[in-house]
Amino acid sequence: MSKIVMGVPVGKPGEASGDTIAKLPEIRGARVGFLSNGHLSIVPFWNCFEAEVQSRWETTQITSYTKPNTFAPAPDDIIKDMASKSEIAFAGVCA
Amino acid sequence: MEIVEADSIEQAIELTYELGWTDGLPVVPPTTVLIQKALDYFKRDPEEVLGVVPPANRIATVENVVMNCIMAGCLPEHIPVVFAALEAVLTPKFNLNGVQATTNCVAPLIIVSGPVVEQLNFNYGDNVFGGGARANAVVGRALRLILWNLGGAYPGDIDRATLGHPGKYAYCIAERPDLPWEPIHVERGFNVDESCVTVFACESPHHIGTGSGYDYPVEDVFYTLADSMATAGNNNMCGGGQMLLILGPMTAHRLREEGYDKNSVRRKLQELATRPVGLMKRSHFLTSDHPYHWSHNVDASNDEARVPLIRNIDDLLVTVAGGWGSGSGFCAFCPGWMQAGGFAETRSIKFPRS
After folding, report:
1. Less Cβ crowding at N or C end of chain B, within 10 Å?
2. CB contacts < 8 A (A, B)
3. Averaged pLDDT for residues B219-230
4. What pTM was computed for the model?
5. With an 8 Å Cβ cutoff, are A4 and B149 in contact?
6. CA distance A3 to chain B (A)
7. What ipTM does the predicted assembly reach?
8. Which residue of B has its CA nearest to A6?
9. Which of residues 291-350 of B touch A (CB under 8 A)?
10. pLDDT tens digits along A25-73
11. Alpha-helix residue ranges (DSSP H) falling in B150-248
């Protein structure tokens, strides 16, 4: 009996576009950006997390961002601004 | 083309499960013979890129979209409808990334309108949201498999929908050709003789019995629709945004006979579909500091003030579908996903030139 030959319907990953923030081996003393979706469930944790990062690793500058649309990817201007002001970025969402 | 081989049809079907190509329902094995037949119909470059499908951001090509359509049971002539729907959901405004990943319970609904409805035998009548018509089933199913295999929205992984949605298997209806007003695609800027799809991410249909076929005042129809639409916990009541009203033909024609067009229906429902502040204060779906929260549109200090369901008149999408039924005048309401995304997008269906 002949074989049944099927095409694979799972697509290949697209390449990431745009600049990415350089990864540093050490957080200590770095400029750090925080981006959250501002959801009620994340705010208390995120505030503590920012404070913990700052105190534990003595980061030199913290910039915090909240997405204007809780439920959509952050717009380019926020990402670019964060990239220009940060060497390490943390992004967190909750719903 | 990347391929896999099976020794029998039984093994091929099981392989589609083992390889994660389906969400639970069985699929037609996408054989190279069927793929080639569909590609011959289109005469398009199989490697042509149609977009990147979030949240997994895998590349959609003519070839792999065709494969998913075949798995859904599409004939070649159904596939242009799927292409149009895919183009619509990939527009950034639709926020497919969020629609696929949200804890909310919305799914992209495809509304087919125009001449294609009768040309391809889409069901616009009895049981329009249910089974019975191949065209509805396979087109809705094909988009779902694309969102699965290219978008990678796997439940419990990146698809965090708390309750999910039965329309995540297939969610496609057609607008009635005999509707008393202009078709939905004409309202949205297309020609009346064009065949189109309108996609809109929304909840499951909420059934509404209006009694529009009986000899009662038309005001009662509006009150019943409004009261059924403006419920304290629904997405739009709490967070605004677009919503869809599906009027059964009996109700639509009754409203038309009473002198209403689509916009006057919208205005009437905007006036009536409200809830008191005192009640909405008990709804904690969104917190009051959230930018979508209902309190930004009303005097929240007055418990008697009315919170509108329909913040902007254009937020209410209206279509006509379903059977005539009895005098009960059945309709349905599908809340959208607030102002977060899934907004209605309409695209023309482009068939290959013969």
Report:
1. C
2. 107
3. 98
4. 0.91
5. no
6. 5
7. 0.89
8. B31
9. 291, 337-341
10. 578 888 889 998 887 778 888 888 888 888 888 888 788 898 888 888 8
11. 184-187, 218-229, 235-239
Q: Which two tokens stand for residue A65?
A: 């961002």
A40 touches B: beta carbon within 8 Å: yes
When pLDDT is cut at 50, 70 and 90, the band that residue A7 belongs to is very high
- Cα–Cα separations (whole angstroms), residue B197 to A87, B75, B115, B175, B194: 45, 18, 11, 10, 10
Nearest CA in chain B to A75: B92
CA contacts within 13 A on the Cβ side of B43: 4
In a domain, B297, yes or no: no
The answer to whether B239 faces chain A, any CB pair under 8 Å, is no
Task: Name which of B50, B59, B65 to mutate to probe chain A: the one with the most chain A Cβ atoms within 10 A of its Cβ.
Answer: B59
Domain regions of chain A by residue span: 31-92
Of B172, B164, B105, nearest to B141 by C-alpha is B172
Number of domains forming the structure of chain B = 1
Taking 60 as the threshold, does the pLDDT of residue B280 lie above it?
Answer: yes
Chain B interface includes A70 (CB < 8 A): yes
* Closest among A80, A71, A86, A93 to A33, alpha carbons compared: A86
With CB atoms and an 8 Å threshold, state whether A7 touches B60: no
| Domain that residue B172 falls in | 9-273+309-348
Residue B347 and residue B197 in contact, taking contact as beta carbons nearer than 8 Å: yes
pLDDT tier at A17, thresholds 50, 70, 90:
low
pLDDT of residue B15: 98
